[in-house]
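Appendix C. Worked example: DUF2336 domain-containing protein
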Amino acid sequence: MADDMRSVPQAPPPPAPSAKARALLARRLADIVCLPASRVPPQERWMVADVLDTLLTSADPALRAKIAARLAEQAEAPPGLLRRLGMDAFEIAEPIVARARALTDFDMMEIARKAGHPHRMALARRETVSEVLAAALCAGGDVQVITAVLRNAGARLAQETVDYLVREAADHESLALLLIKRNELRPAQALNLFWACGHDQRRMILERFAASRAILQEAAGDVFPLASRSDDRDRAVDAALAYIDRRQRDRQAAELSPYASLEGVAEHIAREGYTEAMRAEMASLSAITRSLCDRMIEDFGGEPLAVLAKATGLSREHMVMLVEAGGRTDTPMRISQALRVFDTLTVDKAQTVLRYWNWVIARSPSS
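Step 2, the predicted output written as structure tokens:
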């Protein structure tokens, strides 16, 4: 008989009168807080919100969840109350962080800084994410949150945020593909991103961002002779004209070179390998910095050397020589990568990419 009594489920005790009073008062105060501005003055709404906030501090989770779900739909809900509920356990905060219309950017940035990963993910997936909120979410370095922001068509990225994400993509290739698809990505950022990407992403960058310089060349056509005749050379003008110029090879360097041309250098490299002297000669004849030349030679893929070959007018055969001379075990794959780029990139666009890389390195304090 005792065993039979123990097997019968016991009904939960009825809520204490104090708990019922708290729940009833909280609902009544929420009714007032949710009234339109035409029905309740701002001062009274704030006062009621303060009382409600005090009640919710020690209220049970179920009650806090009900109030949070209701306030999330109100355009005039008190921001302070929303912020506190938005930092609550995610089961309670979810409607607030996911869709509350009255939550300000400041409130969401505070939640992103202090609350947990699920809160940040919900913020990143909101229908709209402002530039300042996107910056705060990305600054945490959480790859999942950053991925959610980049996948959100309603998110807006400031250029400073894109710069930061380009740097992050060096360690997280999955971010690179998402960045390439963003409208905020500028050519300069994309060409920096190039070095952190795999072959498919590199081709996407070259197809989308390797622009022609025809309009620049037309605009600066009469500046070249004027600058060359000047006794007082302007270094900034010279650097800009070097970026715009149609000629990639250094003719004076070729006249002084014992190998006569870049083709001669490539053929010597094919026989002797990348010695220090040949690297220097290759950089000089290509009119690029030694740092950039080394980076292209040592890169894991064949695409940079394809850009160099196309920009300088080397043949496919000479380009293959440069790739093979690296002596890598994955040389066949690198040659295949290089040929795909070489065959699809125009000379002008290849020069644009090469000039940009060289310009960035030349401006670097460490160069």
